[in-house]
Amino acid sequence: xxxxxxxxxxxxxxxxxxKVFYESMxxxxxxxxxxxxxxxxxxxxxxxxxxxxxxxxxxxxxTFNPGDARAIEKRLLEQGVEIETKTSGDSGPTxxxxxxxxxxxxxxxxxxx
Length: 113
Known about the structure:
Blueprint: E1 5-12, H1 15-24, E2 28-35, E3 40-45, E4 48-54, E5 61-65, H2 69-78, E6 83-85, E7 94-99, E8 105-110
Parallel strand pairs: 1-4, 5-8
Antiparallel strand pairs: 1-5, 2-3, 3-4, 6-7, 7-8
């Protein structure tokens, strides 16, 4: 099962402070991937990608960006995984969310297709 690009989506209290902090670690905001004004940003340092999000969700989320989230969701459902937020539609961007046995939130977020 191809999971796609992995990133961590972090729930932050002050996006401007968080941006400065992660930039001090060598992260750079990706063009066209959010803004401080929008209260979300995607940042990258080499192959490491993180998203910082203010006032969008309560907990940090492990995020995968696969080519086909619907196929992965179907496979997980067949294996008995309980999906909290299911994909929508038959094509195009979509996402689904579930938790691991310890309550950690995992999201598969498909940007196209």
